[in-house]
Amino acid sequence: MASARSTVKRLLVSPAAGGVRCLATSAARQSAGAPPAPKYYELRTYDIKQSKWDEFVRLTTEKIHMRFAASKCNVYLCADPGPEPRRRPFNEVTHIWEYDDLVQRAGVRKSLGSDKQWLADYLLPMLDTAAAHQSNSVMLPAPWWPLRPSTDGRNHFAVRKTQLHPGKTGAWSEAVKDELAGEGDNAPLGVWVTDIGDLDSVHELYSYPSHTALVEHQQHRDREAVKFDGTLIKERRWSAYVLAPWSTWSV
Question: Which residues pair with 42 in a beta bridge?
């Protein structure tokens, strides 16, 4: 239990300094008459112990509403158990959370860190018995790609991460934005650039009507990306998911 409590403290309380920076920046933008700053999004990924998967699903189904009440969840996904060899282990979950700014994010984390019911009923049991590994990235939406709704029935999702060479985010954006706009229903639901975490990385979120459609389109995206390998792209990968039963995609 001690290790879980130390994990809670590290995950929920420590990043408050980022909120102070954002508050000063927001005030400066308002005084200068600048347009509102973009929202922040946090991508969180957990590896769940295979032996504890059913317990994790039960616990999250029953208690995740407590977390949803604290801030907006854009989507919550569970790894798709399809046969694609490049997918991550079946026991992975990932979710995206929306914040007005880093001040709100710091406030939510501080509030959750002191919420005894949340800690006792969900977070500590989940960390003690289910979560084996986790990572997160704080992201800003690409200014050239507004978030868009998903079509009904497209419950298979792909998260595509592209690690770029330092300073190449702008060049990559210019190279792909028209190409992505031409993808029709398979165009990304969102494109985000990492602000805190793996810098010079981009995440794209896609939805599909089936696992087969997901694999075919992501392989197509791989073929399109080959021409940028080495010059713009350092590393790229994608993971397949299905929509969690307690979630929707919310813009």
Answer: 97, 138
Q: Which residue has the higher pLDDT, 219 or 16?
A: 219
Q: Per-residue pLDDT tens for 217-248?
A: 999 999 999 999 999 999 999 999 999 999 99
- Whole-model pTM: value is 0.85
- Give 147's contacts (C-beta < 8 A, 6+ positions apart): 74, 141, 189, 190, 251
C-alpha pair distances (Å), 97 with each of 33, 55, 100, 178, 251: 28, 23, 10, 27, 11
Domains contained in the chain, CATH given: 2-140 (3.30.70.100), 141-243 (3.30.70.100)
The widest CA-to-CA distance across the chain, in whole angstroms, is: 55
- CB neighbours of 73 closer than 8 A, spacing ≥ 6? 67, 95, 96, 97, 98, 247, 250
Pairing of strands 156-164, 233-243: antiparallel
CA distance 54 to 35: 46
Q: How far apart are CA 95 and CA 48, in angstroms?
A: 14
